[in-house]
Design a protein that fits this description.
- The protein is mainly alpha-helical.
- It contains two helices and no strands.
- Helices cover 85% and strands 0% of the residues.
- The chain is elongated.
Length: 52
């Protein structure tokens, strides 16, 4: 159970990273969206660290 939860968090983390890269590579990236995605990614990273 715990391992699958960490795997799910890791997948979400990777998905957010991809969205951040995609948005940042646009000609006029939405800074508010990028900041929001980064906050979500940080929360997931903290949750993954707490699971270990």
């Amino acid at each position: 159970m715990e391992n699958s939860h960490i795997s799910a968090l890791s997948a979400k983390h990777a998905g957010l990273e991809a969205r951040i890269k995609a948005e940042s590579s646009r000609p006029m990236p939405d800074a508010i969206l990028v900041a929001s995605l980064k906050k979500q990614k940080l929360r997931l990273k903290e949750e993954m660290a707490a699971q270990h």
